[in-house]
């Protein structure tokens, strides 16, 4: 099928989309394009971008928004259309493709662009041909794959590759030579000056710059002096025309002269050939051409590289060569050659010519054999063969006597013959991890004397006998299936054998050189006797075993410094008989009722002690006398049975920096004791029965973290005078008021006061909190019909996020108790590991995307998978280099029976996990996509020739094989999720969502037992995070707990009674039953456990009156309003729902009020911060769906109430479901509640569009449905964010296609009682704009 000769070459109206450089048109297709796509999924279109757009524009700021618009050609073609045909139709020279905003490659004439897009989408996870066709036609896809009609110009790349121009030049330092106009070139390591102006035909003067000097000439403007190194140094003066040229040349030349070797780095430049001028730099010894597309032919092709006469090191990795470039075998001076990741299948015999070669890297190819000629390279000492297709160790290695390391990780070796290693007596280090090893054979008793290090991680070994490897010093055999392990102990220094099935380890003789041993996550019931005899053992890890006792000799070892014995069955710890050098001791998750009496005054070097999750009722004294010599700095006592008497003992540890004593039985903490812990930096007292925190806490001048949630505290502690306080968590207490000092410490970053139902904050108090980055408060709302409906939901949730030791929170949570048009819910958690941008983008968009996908399919695996893939695309440039684990849970009724039972559909990528409690037992619902935990994913990544580093990370970046984002790691890391649907029943109690950090420390069973003991979901989530921290987690932690009440017992329907008009004052908010229209009031509702967070990005002291009126809880108008019939979530009334966004938080701000109040307000608004200039209310909201009644209004007064928007002060109405939301940092703003088109026309929201985040990323809207909007500042118009216009905009017309005209007319006639004539939308049957 040939290309259709249709090109849309006119200048398009572009707008920013998804991220910094993605652009899309307002109108993607016309009727001709749609007709072309119909009927044949092999048809499509390719968007061709011009070459004027820099593929990597500035990251942020005004420069990014000023990126010039480009011509965009929309080319209709088929999957069979080749590049040659496309170029012939448009008289082009060639096409280029760019993946993930990275390198740009010229396409071969036989390649088919549309088929490339289809294949790319299929590799992502799309399976439906129609959906693939639709996605391929979406210009948003350009952030993932983009085609150019000509090579894009990158000024920065040109500058670092080649600088040239005609400038005034003078040779030498004396005045003998005159200034003359000459062509000057800076390329590689040399300055090149032509002998004739504007001509390169004459003699070229070469000035080597490595080790030389480049200096500013102060006597002349924009002049530089270039000097070579050595006693016969030459000098050239170059006078530049402009300051920009001067700075550019000075910057690049300074890099060259500062080098100690003649190195030219041209990596990652999308080069096909090197600049021809580079061959003038004959002093080059190191040339880096990694990550390019080097070709053989051309003046600067690989065939010309032998022209470098002194070249020693050549890096050609990641160049898609396909075949070994034999021309490099002619560079006889080479000592280092890197040809990794080039899809090589064979190595030619000419490799034997490189007699000087010392390092050869062939990793990441398809090699299965090596030529015999390679054995003649006697100077070769390093040979990389990892991640190839070798099934055995190549015999040619026997001749390479200088090679001391066998690097063959990630191959297909199934058996290792130790006799083979005997013949290769020069090999000392063996790396065979990630192979398919099933056995290690030793057919004879011949000793293997030379091997000192052996790495057999991630194989399939069930037994291992290495007793014949006499001089083994280090062994790695983690993550096998070992039941037995036998080693020789003569020289053994380090043993790593975790994650196996070991019941014992046999080592003979006693390994007296052993210093580190890791036997964690095995089946050990006792420690072998030889462990106690090791004289130099310093670190022993036996966590997660079945140990019931510890040998006394072990604890009294004179060499042991770190002992980890957590998660065993220990009932006692042996007494210490003498002073020991122990520094760290982990005893968590055992059955200890007491600790040795002499622990602290015998282990005087002990700095870390974790005894959490035991049954301790007391702790031993710190010393035998009043004077304590304790050096303990970190003490974790969470989850025991300690009471307030332990305070007298803790005071002896005056060097304590971190103290966790959460979830014990403390009724109080002695004030006099707390004052003596002057070095305390972090204190966790959560989950006790404290009614107050002693005022002596003010003596802890270094305290920066106080966590005391889930107590009975009524008085706010005196901690805001502390100079270093950063985080205070007093949630889930009984606070009633807060007494503050005149000023707060500038270090305070987070204050959590949620769960204090009686707490009332004045405006003065809130103003003092204005600088805090994150302030969490309960949202105050009056009970309405909508709230009643929400409170009867068969589920409610709570969540917690903790940042750990990091300065930023990289975990985000999505929670929607009321989702969609029926009884549904949506919950999610997103973990960015070290980035916060991607989790927040997913938090704000993924609910919207799910809503959209539900309109297209009712098959759970389809709509969930497409939700993840679409969210991956919408990350834009933010998702090119950054990524996040994601988990999404969708509670809904069975598709086949809308009125039947509930189902839970779970989808996830990465390491976020979900577990369901059913009958008190955990039911895992997710799949952990990490290389260590998923064998099939490991094999897939290996087959795609990814380089997996020793810490099991893809390219050293991530341990996950599936993520949203990180598209530059495709096809190794994919966004396709695991999808599972679980029917819910009355035995299902709750659902737990958590990130990797949570479930690494808290097992499924412990998590279930923990939540069962706590009634409040928010307190349960808090407890899970606190436990993970006390168990040693230092990373970001996120947890969501969803309490389920599935079953008829939760029915809360009102009995059938006659409806009457309500008497007395009207309800405080507009009823949930409203009529659709541009001026409809919509209520701001949220699910249970919602908090208000104040962001310091936009100061709370700068708030205005619009937010005050929008967030007001008072309605001055009076009049009877009928109370709608209360229905439970199991038997909902028939409703019509408009899908709305599910953002995470909200910010309202303006600059028009001087006191934070509307002119008609008589009292400060609840939940509003103001100090006279700006007001901000940031609400963590997760539900924006509002209901429309299907019947007529109950009374004329109610109808009149719904029609009138001017009964409120200043004509403003509080909308509880239309929200402007911003992320916690205050820079991300989302708009919902009505169509994007209406918002653009509204004077109060028009300024929200086309803005960007302060960090440079943009999440742009679509015309099809509501998406995130971003703004650098809030609108300043006085009309308020959600004040509906008094009259409908003349241009606000509903355009209906002719094919839907009759259907829309029938629907409107059926809904006519809902819409008054005055507020009916203007319908225009117009086909010209469709």
UniProtKB/TrEMBL annotation:
Annotated Pfam families: LRR_8, PP2C, RA_3
UniProt key word Nucleus: yes
Catalytic activity: O-phospho-L-threonyl-[protein] + H2O = L-threonyl-[protein] + phosphate
Principal cellular location given in the protein's record: cytoplasm
Compartments, record wording: Cytoplasm; Membrane; Nucleus
EC number: 3.1.3.16
Residues in PPM-type phosphatase domain copies: 796-1044
Keywords: Cytoplasm, Hydrolase, Leucine-rich repeat, Manganese, Membrane, Metal-binding, Nucleus, Phosphoprotein, Protein phosphatase, Repeat
Topology in membrane: Peripheral membrane protein
Cellular component per GO, a single term: nucleus
Cofactor annotation: Mn(2+)
Composition skew (Polar residues), residue ranges: 1082-1111
EC category name: hydrolase
Basic and acidic residues compositional bias, start-end: 1317-1330
Function summary: Protein phosphatase involved in regulation of Akt and PKC signaling. Mediates dephosphorylation in the C-terminal domain hydrophobic motif of members of the AGC Ser/Thr protein kinase family; specifically acts on 'Ser-473' of AKT1, 'Ser-660' of PRKCB isoform beta-II and 'Ser-657' of PRKCA. Akt regulates the balance between cell survival and apoptosis through a cascade that primarily alters the function of transcription factors that regulate pro- and antiapoptotic genes. Dephosphorylation of 'Ser-473' of Akt triggers apoptosis and decreases cell proliferation.
UniProt xrefs under PANTHER family: PH DOMAIN AND LEUCINE RICH REPEAT PROTEIN PHOSPHATASE 1 (PTHR48051:SF43), PTHR48051
Record protein name field: PH domain leucine-rich repeat-containing protein phosphatase 2
């Amino acid at each position: 099928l040939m290309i259709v000769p249709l090109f849309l070459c006119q200048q398009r109206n572009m707008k920013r989309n998804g991220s910094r450089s993605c652009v899309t048109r307002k109108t993607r297709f016309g009727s001709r394009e749609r007709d072309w796509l119909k009927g044949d999924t092999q048809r499509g279109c390719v968007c061709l971008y011009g070459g004027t757009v820099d593929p990597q524009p500035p990251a942020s700021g005004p420069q990014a928004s000023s990126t010039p618009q480009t011509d965009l050609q929309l080319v209709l073609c088929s999957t069979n259309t080749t590049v040659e045909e496309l170029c012939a139709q448009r008289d082009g020279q060639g096409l280029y493709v760019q993946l993930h905003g990275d390198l740009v490659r010229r396409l071969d004439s036989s390649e088919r662009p549309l088929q490339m897009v289809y294949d790319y989408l299929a590799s992502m996870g799309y399976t439906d041909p129609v959906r693939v066709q639709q996605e391929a036609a979406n210009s948003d896809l350009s952030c993932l794959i983009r085609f150019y009609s000509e090579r894009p110009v990158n000024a920065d790349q040109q500058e670092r590759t080649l600088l040239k121009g005609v400038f005034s030049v003078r040779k030498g330092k004396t005045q003998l030579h005159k200034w003359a106009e000459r062509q000057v070139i800076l390329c590689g390591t040399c300055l090149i000056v032509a002998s004739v102006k504007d001509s390169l035909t004459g003699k070229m003067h070469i000035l080597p710059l490595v080790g030389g000097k480049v200096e500013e000439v102060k006597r002349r403007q924009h002049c530089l002096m270039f000097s070579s190194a050595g006693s016969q140094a030459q000098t050239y003066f170059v006078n530049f025309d402009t300051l920009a040229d001067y700075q550019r040349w000075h910057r690049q030349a300074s890099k060259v002269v500062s080098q100690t070797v003649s190195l030219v780095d041209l990596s990652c430049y999308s080069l096909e050939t090197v600049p021809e001028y580079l061959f003038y730099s004959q002093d080059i010894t190191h040339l880096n051409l990694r990550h390019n597309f080097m070709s053989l032919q051309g003046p600067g092709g690989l065939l010309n590289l032998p022209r470098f006469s002194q070249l020693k090191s050549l890096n050609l990795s990641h160049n898609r060569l396909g075949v070994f470039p034999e021309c490099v075998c002619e560079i006889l001076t080479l000592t280092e050659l890197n040809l990794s990741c080039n899809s090589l299948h064979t190595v030619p015999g000419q490799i034997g010519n490189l007699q000087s070669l010392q390092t050869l890297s062939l990793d990441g190819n398809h090699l299965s054999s090596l030529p015999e000629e390679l054995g003649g390279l006697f100077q070769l000492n390093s040979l990389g063969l990892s991640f190839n297709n070798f099934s055995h160790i190549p015999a040619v290695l026997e001749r390479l006597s200088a090679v001391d390391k066998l690097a063959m990780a990630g191959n297909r070796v199934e058996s290792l013959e130790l006799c083979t290693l005997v013949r290769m007596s020069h090999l000392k280090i063996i790396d065979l991890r990630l192979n398919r090893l099933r056995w290690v054979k030793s057919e004879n008793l011949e000793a293997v004397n030379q091997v000192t290090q052996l790495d057999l991680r991630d194989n399939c070994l069930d037994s291992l006998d290495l007793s014949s490897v006499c001089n083994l010093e280090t062994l790695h055999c983690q993550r096998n299936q070992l039941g037995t392990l036998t080693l020789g102990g003569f020289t053994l220094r380090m043993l790593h054998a975790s994650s196996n099935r070991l019941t014992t380890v046999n080592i003979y003789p006693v390994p007296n050189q052993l210093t580190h041993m890791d036997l964690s996550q095995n089946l050990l019931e006792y420690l072998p006797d030889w462990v106690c005899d090791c004289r130099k053992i310093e670190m022993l890890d036996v966590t997660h075993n079945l140990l019931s006792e510890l040998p006394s000799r072990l604890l009294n070892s004179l060499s042991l410094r770190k002992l980890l014995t957590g998660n065993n069955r220990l009932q006692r710890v042996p007494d210490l008989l003498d002073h020991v050098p122990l520094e760290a001791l982990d005893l968590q998750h055992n059955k200890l009722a007491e600790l040795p009496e002499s622990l602290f005054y015998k282990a005087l070097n002990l700095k870390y002690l974790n005894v959490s999750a035991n049954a301790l009722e007391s702790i031993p004294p710190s010393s035998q006398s009043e004077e304590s010599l304790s050096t303990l700095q970190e003490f974790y006592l969470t989850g025991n049975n300690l009471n307030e008497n332990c305070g007298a003992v803790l005071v002896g540890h005056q060097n304590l920096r971190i103290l966790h004593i959460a979830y014990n039985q403390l009724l109080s903490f002695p004030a006099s004791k707390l004052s003596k812990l002057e070095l305390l930096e972090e204190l966790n007292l959560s989950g006790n029965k404290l009614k107050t925190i002693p005022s002596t806490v003010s003596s802890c001048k270094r305290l920066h973290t106080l966590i005391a949630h889930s107590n009975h505290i009524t008085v706010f502690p005196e901690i805001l005078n502390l100079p270093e306080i950063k985080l205070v968590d007093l949630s889930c207490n009984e606070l009633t008021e807060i007494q503050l000092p005149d000023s707060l410490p500038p270090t305070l970053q987070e204050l959590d006061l949620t769960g204090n139902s009686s707490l009332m904050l004045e405006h003065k108090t809130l103003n003092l909190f204005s600088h805090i980055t994150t302030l969490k408060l309960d949202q105050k709302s009056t009970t309405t019909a909508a709230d009643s409906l929400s409170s009867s939901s068969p589920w409610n949730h709570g969540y917690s996020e903790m940042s750990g030791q990091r300065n930023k929170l990289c975990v985000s949570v999505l929670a929607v108790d009321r989702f969609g048009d029926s009884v549904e819910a949506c919950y999610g958690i997103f973990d960015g590991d070290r980035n916060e941008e991607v989790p927040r983008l997913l938090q704000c968009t993924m609910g919207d995307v799910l809503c959209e996908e539900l309109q297209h399919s009712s098959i759970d695996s389809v709509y969930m998978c497409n939700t993840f893939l679409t969210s991956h695309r919408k990350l834009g440039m933010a998702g090119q280099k950054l990524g996040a684990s994601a988990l999404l849970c969708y509670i809904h009724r069975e598709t086949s029976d809308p009125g039947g039972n509930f189902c839970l559909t779970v989808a996830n990528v990465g390491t976020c996990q979900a577990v369901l409690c059913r009958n008190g037992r955990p039911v895992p619902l997710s799949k952990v996509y990490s290389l260590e935990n998923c064998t099939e994913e490991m094999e897939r990544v290996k087959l795609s020739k990814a380089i997996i580093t020793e810490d099991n990370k893809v390219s050293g970046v991530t341990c996950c094989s599936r993520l949203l984002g990180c598209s530059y790691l495709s096809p190794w890391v994919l966004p396709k999720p695991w999808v599972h649907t679980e029917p819910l029943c009355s035995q299902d109690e709750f659902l737990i969502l958590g990130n990797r950090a949570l479930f690494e420390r808290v097992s499924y069973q412990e998590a279930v037992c923990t939540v069962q003991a706590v009634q409040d979901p928010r307190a349960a989530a808090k407890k899970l995070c606190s436990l993970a921290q006390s168990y040693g987690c230092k990373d970001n932690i996120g947890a969501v707990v969803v309490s389920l009440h599935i079953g008829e017992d939760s029915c809360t329907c009102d009995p059938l009674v006659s409806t009457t008009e309500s008497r007395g004052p009207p309800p405080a908010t507009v009823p949930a039953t409203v009529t659709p229209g541009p001026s409809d009031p919509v209520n701001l509702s949220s699910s249970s456990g919602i908090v208000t967070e104040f962001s310091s990005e936009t100061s709370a002291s700068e708030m205005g009156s619009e937010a005050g009126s929008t967030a007001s809880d008072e309605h001055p108008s009076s009049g009877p309003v009928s109370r709608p019939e209360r229905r439970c979530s199991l038997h909902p009334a028939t409703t019509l729902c408009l899908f709305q966004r599910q953002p995470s938080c909200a910010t309202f701000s303006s600059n028009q009020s001087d006191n934070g109040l509307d002119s008609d307000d008589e009292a400060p608004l609840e939940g509003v911060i103001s100090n006279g200039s700006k007001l901000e209310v940031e609400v963590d909201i997760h539900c924006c769906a509002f209901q429309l009644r299907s019947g007529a209004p109950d009374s004329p007064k109610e109808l009149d109430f719904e029609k009138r928007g001017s009964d409120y002060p200043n004509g403003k109405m509080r909308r509880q479901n239309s929200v402007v939301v911003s992320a916690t940092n205050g820079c991300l703003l989302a708009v919902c509640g009505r169509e994007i088109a209406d918002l653009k026309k509204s004077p109060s929201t028009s300024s929200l569009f086309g803005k960007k985040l302060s960090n440079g990323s943009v999440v742009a809207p679509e015309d099809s449905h509501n998406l995130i909007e971003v703004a650098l500042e809030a609108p300043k118009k006085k009309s308020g964010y959600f004040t509906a216009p008094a009259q409908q905009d003349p241009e606000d017309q509903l355009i209906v296609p002719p094919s839907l005209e009759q259907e829309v007319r029938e629907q409107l006639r059926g809904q006519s009682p809902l819409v008054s004539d005055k507020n009916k939308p203007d319908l225009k049957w117009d086909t010209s704009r469709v």
